[in-house]
Amino acid sequence: PCFRRVGEITPTDRRFLCALPPSLRGQWAATFALLARPAPSTRLITLMYPLHPTPLPEADHPPYPLSEEEYHRLLDERWELVYCEPVKPEWKRTVGAPGGEKAGVWAWRG
Questions:
Q1: Residue 51's beta-bridge partner residues?
Q2: How far apart, in whole angstroms, are the C-alpha atoms of residue 7 and residue 39?
Q3: What is the predicted pLDDT for the residue at 72?
Q4: Model pTM score
Q5: What is the rounded CA–CA span in Å between residue 8 and residue 85?
Q6: How do beta strands 12-14 and 43-51 pair?
Q7: pLDDT number for residue 39
Q8: pLDDT per residue as tens digits for the range 20-56
Q9: How far is CA 26 from CA 7, 22, 97, in A?
Q10: Is 13 helix (H, G, I), strand (E, B) or coil?
């Protein structure tokens, strides 16, 4: 394969999911599950963006809109959300598509 398990390094998604067309989101989740070390101490860190409280029409270009529910749909089979907080105002991006930002930490549940 063109990738390998990460080992002790925590997999991180920093606004990458929003760049993928919605049809590839399942592969994104499967890849993180494959790369993760299957252990109770394994964590996945996500910077969820752009979050919208209500569903938006599908965009035809990135960043594609997301919701916290979409992250749960993709990750809950293998991961449990153990931390989720809005990004502090002083750390938020100042350019880009509108939408909220949250930092999430997911624990491996296998």
A1: 66, 100
A2: 10
A3: 97
A4: 0.83
A5: 24
A6: parallel
A7: 86
A8: 999 999 999 999 888 888 888 888 899 998 888 776 6
A9: 22, 8, 23
A10: strand
Q: Exposed, middle or buried: residue 29 (CB in 10 Å: 0-12, 13-18, 19+)?
A: buried
4-7 long-range contacts (CB < 8 A, ≥24 apart) are 4/35, 5/34, 5/35, 5/36, 5/37, 6/35, 6/36, 6/37, 7/37
CA angle at 17 for the pair 67 and 61, rounded to the nearest 5°: 90
pLDDT score for 1: 41
H or E stretch at 71 = helix 68-75
- Write down the pLDDT at residue 91: 83
Amino acid at 54: T
